[in-house]
């Protein structure tokens, strides 16, 4: 009898799936955005998918897995981009989809279970209280709140509210520890930071308390510009006007909009259009349009003025932004992938202009304007035409020489994805809450090698990774 059979015997009536096809599907995420990860991780498989329905069942699963020494990888809806929820060492994938309740909605806050879809939460908070999420990833309709908290970083809303980690956005997390007798611990304040964006390596989130904002009837506005520089310049200026209440502002370089946003193509003039995509509060639309025109832009689309028949079948504007931009490109040109780049604080537009000139046709620009600790940043998420791993490394080194920070989306570890060495707070928590290192193994280099020195070239290999069959 294998330890998986032993585990099944201990699960009682907790739902699980052992079908090979289902296991394969739930052992993957959007890691295939990266040609490098696609090749390395294609074979990764769990042994069993377990889908508890309550916090008590999570505790039961963790206790059983701890006793049997079985690794556990939490999974929301598997929309992460860097194999975040892929079970590198096999074992159990803990699927939270049966824990999807909105438990409580109050003025300015909601308490939810981890498997709740962000879109469903927002529907319910709007309906019951006239409030909305402060921010969401562009995968709002298909991603869970637990996955966003443990894997994501920000998104639509971050221009106004800052990144997810900023104090006040996440109010409380409850986690279950990976021990023989798992503890349930409520984390607030700074303690939240060490679990947020930690890929589920130091606790399984069983409840999330998030801040809400008064709901707005957001208007989608898309403007076109003749040059990339003009669209960036307009975006940069608009992002600084806090009186203009914008939920989203992204600049996307030609030819991406015309070539890859097929359903919006009818609103553009041609492949030369660079665009600014924005979501504006109703009272900000007039001033926003004035500002765009003053900066040489042409309003190509307004959701409040476009007749319903012309809008039929159009994706939401947020499905053109964040990591959706790359998805549109990838669907047409499979050699496309992406980079995640922090631009230099001192002269972001200067660096972006140099990159556009130097990598014409290889790097297609996409900037998300965000606010962090009160400062506006031009977060660069360009589409990248991939040829070889060596070439990619050369480009990354060059961007770093320009003062950029590259957050490697072609690596599966926390450190490489965050451009950092081992994080002391995250590691300390893992030692305390997951003493046997069974939660999502292989994702935190510091656990395997506390002396690891960050290398932007990536390529760190987890020795415990289960080999490909055959
Ligand atoms: P999963 O992919 O299932 O999990 C993500 C991580 O969280 C994994 O490490 C997993 O182990 C861990 N985890 C999940 N649930 C728990 C739990 N209960 N306890 C502990 N750990 C847990 N991300 C952004 O931040 N902003 C964006 O705008 C954005 N846009 C995207 C667009 C596209 C097209 C795609 C493919 C991805 C995008 N992402 C973005 C990445 C991803 O969609 C989000 O981070 C999303 O919120 C992840 O949610 P999920 O439920 O799919 O999580």
What do these coordinates show?
With 470 residues, the protein is of the alpha+beta class. Helices cover 31% and strands 21% of the residues. It contains 18 helices and 21 strands. It has helices at residues 3-11, 20-25, 35-41, 55-68, 118-129, 145-151, 158-161, 190-193, 228-240, 256-260, 285-294, 308-311, 323-332, 348-358, 389-401, 414-417, 424-433, 445-448, and strands spanning 16-17, 48-50, 72-75, 92-95, 102-106, 109-112, 131-133, 170-176, 184-187, 204-214, 219-225, 246-252, 274-280, 298-302, 336-338, 341-342, 363-364, 366-372, 375-380, 383-385, 405-406. A hairpin with a 2-residue loop joins strand 5 (102-106) and strand 6 (109-112). Helix 1 packs antiparallel against helix 4. The chain is globular and about 65 Å long. The relative contact order is 0.13. Flavin-adenine dinucleotide binds at residues 29-30, 73-81, 84-85, 96, 114, 137-139, 143-144, 146-148, 150-155, 199-200, 204-205, 322-324, 327, 440.
Descriptive key words:
single chain, 470 residues, alpha+beta, eight-stranded antiparallel sheet, six-stranded antiparallel sheet, 18 helices, 21 strands, globular, binds flavin-adenine dinucleotide
Strand order of the largest sheet: 14-11-13-12-18-19-16-21
How many beta strands in the DSSP annotation?
Answer: 21
Measured distance between first and last alpha carbons: 23 Å
Name the average pLDDT. Answer: 97
Into which percent range does the helicity of residues fall?
25-40%
Q: Give the C-alpha Rg.
A: 22 Å
Helix count, DSSP H or I runs of 4 or more residues: 18
Low-confidence residue ranges: none
Characterize the overall form. Answer: globular
Biggest pleated-sheet summary: 8 strands, antiparallel
Strand content: 15-25%
**What structural class results from the helix and strand content?**
alpha+beta
């Amino acid at each position: 009898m294998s330890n998986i059979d032993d585990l099944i015997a201990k699960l009682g009536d907790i739902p699980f799936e052992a079908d090979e096809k289902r296991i394969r599907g739930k052992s993957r995420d959007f890691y295939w955005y990266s040609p490098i990860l696609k090749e390395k991780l294609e074979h990764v498989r769990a042994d069993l998918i377990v889908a508890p329905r309550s916090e008590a069942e999570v505790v039961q699963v963790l206790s059983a897995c701890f006793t049997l020494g079985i690794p556990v990888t939490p999974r929301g809806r598997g929309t992460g981009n860097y194999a975040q929820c892929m079970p590198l060492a096999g074992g159990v994938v803990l699927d939270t989809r049966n824990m999807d309740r909105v438990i409580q909605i109050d003025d300015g806050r909601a308490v939810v279970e981890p498997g709740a879809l962000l879109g469903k939460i927002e529907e319910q908070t709007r309906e019951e209280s006239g409030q909305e999420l402060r921010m969401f990833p562009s995968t709002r309709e298909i991603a869970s709140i637990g996955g966003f908290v443990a894997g994501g970083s920000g998104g639509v809303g971050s221009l106004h509210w800052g990144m997810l980690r900023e104090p006040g956005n996440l109010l409380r997390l409850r986690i279950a520890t990976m021990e023989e007798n798992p503890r349930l611990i409520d984390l607030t304040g700074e303690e939240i930071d060490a679990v947020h964006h930690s890929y589920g390596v130091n606790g399984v989130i069983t409840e999330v308390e998030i801040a809400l904002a008064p709901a707005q009837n957001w208007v989608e506005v898309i403007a076109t510009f003749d040059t990339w520089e003009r669209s960036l310049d307009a975006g940069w200026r608009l992002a600084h006007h806090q009186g203009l209440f914008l939920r989203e502002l992204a600049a996307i370089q030609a030819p991406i909009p015309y070539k890859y946003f097929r359903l919006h193509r009818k609103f553009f003039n041609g492949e030369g259009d660079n665009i600014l995509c924005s979501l504006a509060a109703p009272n900000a639309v007039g001033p926003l349009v004035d500002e765009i025109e003053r900066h040489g832009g042409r309003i190509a689309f307004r959701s409040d003025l476009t007749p319903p028949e012309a809008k039929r079948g159009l994706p939401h504007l947020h499905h053109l932004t964040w990591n959706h931009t790359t998805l549109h490109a990838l669907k047409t040109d499979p050699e496309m992938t992406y980079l995640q780049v922090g631009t230099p604080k001192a002269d972001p537009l200067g660096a972006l202009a140099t990159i556009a000139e130097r990598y014409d046709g290889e790097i297609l620009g996409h900037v998300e304007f965000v606010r962090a600790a009160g400062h506006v940043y031009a977060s660069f998420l360009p589409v990248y035409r991939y040829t070889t791993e060596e070439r990619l490394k050369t480009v990354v080194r060059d961007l770093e020489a320009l003062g950029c920070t590259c957050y490697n989306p072609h690596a599966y570890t926390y450190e490489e994805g965050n451009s950092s060495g081992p994080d002391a707070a995250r590691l300390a928590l893992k030692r305390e809450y997951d003493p046997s290192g069974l939660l999502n193994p292989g994702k935190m280099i510091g656990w395997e090698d506390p002396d690891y020195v960050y290398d932007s070239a990536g390529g760190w290999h987890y020795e415990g990774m289960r080999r490909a069959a055959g």
